[in-house]
Write a structure and sequence with these properties.
This protein is an alpha/beta fold. The protein has 8 helices and 11 strands. The protein starts with 5 loop residues before the first strand and ends in an 8-residue tail after the last strand.
Length: 232
């Protein structure tokens, strides 16, 4: 029997909670609801859900702060977080993703499309959780269970998206991973050619790793390999 996934919905609007419950429960999700982020933190800590769907505009502790708190909890490392909000500006979208969210969906979204987006997100995370024993470049240790990266024994702090990007490349060492593959697995949707989100994340990772662990294969994608020695 297929395991039912647990979803925690957080929204100050009770009618919105009822509406989402009506979409998710028939799709075989086990749903818990609450109207405050403070209450949601307690619920999530006691029984970590597979997915948290939260409004951005919340009283007392807003959705961004809520997401940052969730991402600091080790027990919630495997929990996906989705913002479901009417805020449709680039700043809110980028800030939400930078805070550790896995997706950002604009209200209102048709039920079938909403379920499709949620299903794709959960499927994507399941793929990323399959580890291999491939060797990774010298000096790097990547701990998927604890979302930690070490370079030459020194711990590096990487936000969730940066970590998942580096982890994905580490599962394909010495092989080129295309831009399309990376975007689909990490962000779950297609980006226009002029969207520089992926490039920005790669640049940030390179700055933290130093050297040239991540190489660009122009027009194709990226490869993780041993850095070339500096010329004397």
């Amino acid at each position: 029997m297929k395991k039912k996934l647990r979803v925690l919905i957080v929204d100050k609007d009770k009618e919105q909670l009822v509406a989402l419950n009506g979409i998710l429960e028939p799709a075989d999700f086990i749903v818990t609801q609450c109207t405050s982020t403070e209450e949601a933190l307690k619920i999530a800590t006691k029984a970590p859900p597979d997915l948290i769907i939260t409004e951005l505009l919340m009283p007392t502790m807003d959705g961004i702060e809520f997401c940052l708190e969730l991402r600091m909890m080790k027990e919630l490392d495997e929990t996906s977080i989705v913002f479901y909000t009417e805020r449709n500006d680039d700043y809110s979208h980028i800030t939400a993703l930078n805070s550790g969210a896995d997706d950002y969906i604009i209200k209102p979204t048709r039920p079938r499309l909403f379920l499709k987006k949620i299903g794709a997100l959960l499927k994507r995370h399941k793929k990323l959780d399959h580890t291999t024993n491939q060797p990774i470049p010298n000096g790097l240790v990547i701990n998927k269970e604890e979302y930690l990266v070490y370079k030459d024994g020194k711990r590096l702090i990487l936000p969730r998206k940066e970590f998942e990007l580096l982890y994905l490349l580490s599962q394909n060492p010495q092989k080129v991973v295309t831009r399309e593959e990376i975007v689909k697995l990490i962000w779950g949707y297609e980006m226009s050619p002029d969207n520089r989100t992926l490039d920005v994340h790669v640049r940030k990772i390179r700055k933290k790793l130093g050297g040239n662990y991540i190489k660009t294969i122009r027009g194709i994608g990226y490869i993780l390999s041993n850095p070339e020695p500096k010329s004397s």
